[in-house]
Design brief:
Layout lengths: L23 E12 L2 E11 L8 E7 L4 E8 L6 E2 L19 E11 L6 E8 L14 E8 L11 E2 L6 E3 L4 E3 L3 E2 L5 E7 L32 E2 L6 E3 L6 E14 L2 E17 L7 E2 L17 E5 L4 E8 L9 E4 L7 E5 L7 E6 L11 E8 L8 E11 L3 E4 L4 E4 L3 E8 L5 E6 L2 E3 L6 E5 H4 L2 E10 L8 E10 L10 E4 L4 E4 L5 E5 L7 E4 L3 E8 L7 E11 L10 E3 L3 E4 L6 E4 L7 E4 L3 E8 L8 E9 L5 E2 L4 E4 L4 E4 L1 E2 L12 E6 L2 E2 L6 E4 L5 E10 L3 E11 L8 E2 L22 E5 L5 E5 L14 E10 L9 E10 L2
Parallel strand pairs: 10-17, 19-25, 27-33, 34-39, 40-45, 47-54, 55-59
Antiparallel strand pairs: 1-2, 1-17, 2-6, 3-4, 3-7, 4-6, 5-6, 7-8, 8-17, 9-12, 11-15, 13-16, 14-15, 16-17, 18-20, 20-23, 21-24, 22-23, 24-25, 26-28, 28-31, 29-30, 29-32, 32-33, 35-37, 36-38, 38-39, 41-43, 42-44, 44-45, 46-49, 48-52, 50-51, 50-53, 53-54, 56-57, 56-58, 58-59
Length: 803
């Protein structure tokens, strides 16, 4: 059977009832358990924009045999309400200051605590209703909206909520089937009925509105055929035959089987004003369920089907508009079956099409249909035409349940045992994993090993039958998600240097959470000291998590500067700076400063903690050169051929200049001379005085001067000796020969025979044992290493001995 909701039709004129309008066009009250005995109470209020202003807040009365109190619900944003009048773009209703009929929705909410009790009633009442043609004294009648709850039998139960806005205007002569789209979040069974709208409610006077003769709660307006209400689906159908304004109320009862007994655990009620007007727009429609259909057909008029558990339910919802030209259509659904998927193609065209897909599980196995609604809307102006159709699917089959039930998640490496419990009709059990046959432990037991399944989503399914081919088999399944189990290893605690970045890697995973910083990347760049913790999830918000902690210390990099090379005359303190750091000197010291009293290169390594590649090294060369009392010796006299070594030294013989890092220079008669040594050797200078200056350079330049007198020291060789013992000329004496040490003398007689030889002649040959006469001598004079390239010089002559 076709079911639809018409919110509006095309342009019409409403007179009479608007002039005396109050503001109440519809109202409903619901509750949601938010934990324990705490409930969120919601009042949805529909205001006729031509009436008075909506209340700022509302007071809800709570009564029961356990307790009674009142609570104020506050208006939710937007404070100005939401206009729900389905007008086309650019049209201004009375909600915006225009003349077209307009409707606003306001929502009020508040939180209360309801102790467990079997007979809670919460209610809201407000005066007054809009004028109506079907009840007595409508302008003085109130609207009382109740909801009931038995939270003793059903703790933390939430009421059904209406997913479709109430219809307020329908077209005369056009069939109208309305469905509120009630959805129960707990999956309880819902029963619908038409009831007499309340005035002041139970205990009030009067408690209900009074219909004018000819109208009742079940027949609130003229309709051919009569008004009908489907207690299972909630479909309310009518074909009005007269322009009229009426009111009616739909009661939704919520039933749950508790301990095997069907129990009424709550009710909600929606009170509506409904006006029938003349329309000149043909309302859009949509086709029923036909999985094989490829386009709209009026013959597809089935809106309720039975399917076997395990079957896939998939069909297209085709829309149609009879106007010429056809108007653009949009369709949407109320999400009435949460597990199903819904999508739309070609929306806002004449061929808008919805696509429904659902694989029901065993929790839907029941004789109670599962319903959802689909609304179709055209783009007529000023009011768009809208209808809502309900689709109901009943799942049939042999009862079988998997337990533990519900989809589950396994971390890689975990196992899970499933049990199947079927009713007494079950003969055969068969198991599948991801559509392939699987071997159970036994008919009713299946062992799930995540390691063999592998990471990803898997479906474990059991199918049962009674051994015949005449009934729907039973089926239940669970989805098992296997998530890789991370193995996080951030490594040992580590040290890095200031300015460096250390990258931490959480390893393979799907989700990461780092502390500190709350970053969610796989890696974390660390630049500051601290303890870092990462939690890695193998999936998205699963329990398959691992974590690790690491301490990263960032060492400061010191600035070390021992300064330029130094020259000091005593001692100096070298300071590596960076107080509190660690130090390693080339001297072996580990202090910030050292005292230096010897020349050398001094090196220091500084770090906040040595040995972590954050060390900084510097060195400095220190010359320690005390101030000398420099002397190069007294004035001296030498022969020209003699070498003389002049040495720079200190007057204190215990102070050795060469123990220190002096440099030396020499000046001879005003000109640089010799090498940069602490001494010079002089010979073969010209005869006469020479000025010699010696320089020793330490941190300053020190000098001393001496006068060196050079004599010729020539040799005069006699040719006769008179060795007669008179002490005069008794020996062959050569004046100045003492300045030529190691000189050699050879004496030969006249026959050439050598009669005397000396390798270091000392002026002591007296011719003893040799007769008078003439002899020959050869004198080899040793000049030593005189620096002029000549070492020996020979003199020849005769020597006469005469006594």
């Amino acid at each position: 059977m076709k079911k639809f909701l018409l919110l509006t039709c095309i342009f019409f004129t409403i007179t009479g009832f608007r002039a005396n309008a109050s503001h109440i066009a519809g109202c409903d009250l619901s509750y949601t358990c938010i934990g324990g005995n705490d409930y969120l109470i919601t009042l949805t209020f529909y205001r006729d924009c031509s009436g008075v202003t909506e209340p700022t807040n509302v007071v809800i009365d709570f009564t029961s045999s356990c307790s009674s109190f009142s609570a104020t619900l506050n208006k939710l944003p937007p404070i100005a309400g939401v206009e729900v009048t389905p007008v086309c773009p650019g049209q201004v209703t009375t909600c915006g200051g225009g003349t077209l009929y307009g409707l606003q929705k306001f929502v009020y909410q508040g939180q209360v605590t309801l102790v467990p009790c079997s007979d809670w009633t919460m209610s809201y009442v407000l005066c007054c209703r809009n004028p109506s043609n079907t009840i007595n004294a409508p302008s003085s009648a109130s609207m009382y909206i109740p909801a009931t709850l038995n939270n003793l039998a059903a703790p933390c139960n939430s009421s059904p909520t209406f997913s479709n806005a109430p219809a307020t205007i329908i077209c005369n002569g056009q069939q109208f089937c309305f469905n509120h789209g009630a959805i129960d979040p707990d999956g309880d069974s819902l029963v619908y009925s038409l009831v007499t709208p309340y005035d002041l409610g139970p205990g009030g006077s009067p408690p209900n509105v009074v219909y004018i003769n000819g109208y009742t709660a079940q027949q609130p307006l003229p309709s051919t055929p009569p008004v009908t209400m489907n207690p299972v689906t909630g479909d309310l159908c009518m074909t009005p035959t007269q322009n009229i304004t009426t009111v009616f109320a739909v009661l939704v009862q919520e039933w749950r089987t508790i301990n095997g007994v069907p129990t009424l655990i709550g009710t909600v009620l929606r009170d509506m004003q409904l006006t029938v007007v003349t329309c000149n727009n043909t309302l859009p429609i949509i086709a029923g369920i036909n999985p094989n259909a490829t386009q709209y057909s009026p013959n597809d008029s089935i809106f309720a089907i039975d399917v076997c558990l395990g079957d896939t339910v998939a069909f297209n919802v085709f829309s149609h508009d009879a106007d010429v030209p056809a108007q653009n259509l949009t369709i949407n659904w109320n999400s009435g079956i949460p597990d199903a998927t819904w999508s739309v193609t070609a929306n806002n065209t004449p061929n808008a099409t919805g696509h429904f897909f659902w694989i029901p599980n065993s929790s839907y196995l029941s004789n109670v249909p599962n319903c959802f609604t689909v609304s179709v809307q055209d783009d007529n102006c000023p009011y768009v035409g809208t209808q809502t159709f309900s689709y109901c699917i009943t799942i049939k089959g042999i009862a079988v349940d998997l337990y533990p039930g519900g989809d589950t998640l396994l971390c890689m490496g975990e196992s899970y045992t499933l049990y199947a419990h079927g009713d007494t009709n079950v003969v055969n059990y068969s198991w599948e994993v991801d559509g392939s046959p699987a071997i159970p432990v036994n008919d009713t037991t299946f062992f799930v090993n995540s390691a063999t399944l592998g990471a990803g989503n898997h479906t474990i399914k059991v199918t049962v039958d009674d051994g015949s081919m005449t009934s729907c088999p039973g089926m239940d399944y669970i989805n098992v998600k296997v998530v890789p189990m991370p193995n996080v290893n951030l490594g040992p605690d580590t040290v890095i240097c200031q300015g460096q970045t250390y990258t931490l890697d959480g390893g393979p995973g799907a989700q990461y959470f780092w502390l500190p910083g709350n970053q969610t990347t796989q890696t974390l760049a660390v630049t500051t000291t601290g303890t870092y913790v990462v939690e890695v999830d193998g999936g998205q918000n699963t329990r398959c998590k691992d974590y690790d902690t690491i301490f990263v210390k960032v060492l400061q990099v010191p600035v070390v500067d021992l300064g330029p090379d130094l020259c000091v005359e005593d001692t100096v303190t070298l300071n590596a700076g960076n107080p509190g750091f660690e130090y390693s000197w080339s001297t072996g010291a580990s202090s910030q400063t050292i005292l230096v009293d010897h020349s050398g290169t001094y090196t220091v390594t500084v770090a906040e903690e040595l040995g972590h590649n954050c060390d900084v090294t510097d060195n400095v060369y220190v010359r320690v050169v005390p101030v000398p009392e420099l002397t190069i010796g007294p004035d001296s006299t030498v022969c020209q051929h003699q070498s003389i070594e002049i040495k720079a030294r200190d007057k204190d013989p215990n102070f050795i200049l060469t123990d220190y890092d002096y440099t030396y220079a020499w000046m001879l008669d005003g000109s640089p001379y010799g090498q940069a040594d602490p001494f010079i050797v002089l010979s073969w200078l010209s005869a006469g005085p020479h000025t010699i200056i010696g320089y020793a350079a330490g941190c300053d330049i020190y000098a001393d001067t001496m006068i060196l007198t050079v004599q010729l020291c020539e040799l005069t060789i006699p040719n006769i000796i008179t060795p007669n013992g008179d002490g005069q000329n008794d020996r062959f004496r050569i004046p100045n020969l003492e300045y030529y040490p190691n000189s050699e003398l050879f004496i030969y007689n006249r026959w050439g025979r050598k009669v005397y030889e000396s390798s270091n002649y000392q002026n002591d040959w007296d011719g003893t044992d040799h007769s008078d006469g003439v002899y020959f001598f050869l004198l080899r004079v040793n000049y030593g290493n005189a620096g002029n390239g000549e070492q020996w010089k020979e003199f020849h002559g005769t020597l006469t001995i005469l006594r």
